[in-house]
Description:
4 strands; 8 helices; Glutaredoxin
Amino acid sequence: MKLRINRASPFARKARIVAREAGISNRIEEVETTVSPVVANEALAQDNPLIKIPALVTDTGETLYDSRVICEYLDTLHSGLRLFPEAGPQRFAALRRQALTDGMLDAAVLCRYELAVRPEATRWPDWIAGQKRKIFGGLAALETEVSSWADEFNVGQIGAACVCGYLDFRFADWHWRSGHPHLAAWNERITRRPSVADTTPPA
């Protein structure tokens, strides 16, 4: 299989963590891919017409996107404990956390593009503040439930690890740990998990 990634992308990181948790990373060729909101990558467009990563080309030549679809597909390729619980309340709790953390990551990536790509004279501070409110609202929600996770690590916790890691990587000056001590303690522990440590964004 071929997985188009960028090591700075939190969505690609989700898929990379799932592959490692599932024990199938040796079956996947990770292809570093440059992406930009303003310059099209034509090679990536062949695998994903939305020109976004991650994109997975399966062993049969089928292309899958986005991260949610890729992660669930990868979870079908192993016989271990499912990262997408199969049924019942646990499944919907995991899917809800995935929706929450994906939304937080969407907002964070949009902030990154606004601050790093858009010319300073045309940036919209109120719009950035609105995205930041979504992120911190999500942090508050995770803070209320993280103590109940114990050793659980499914797609919901994978999303949370990617959120914390991306905020550290791109927005360290936001000091997200302030006011979220339980989430910060969980993140400190989870960063030592091999799948998380192995996919840490570049310095």
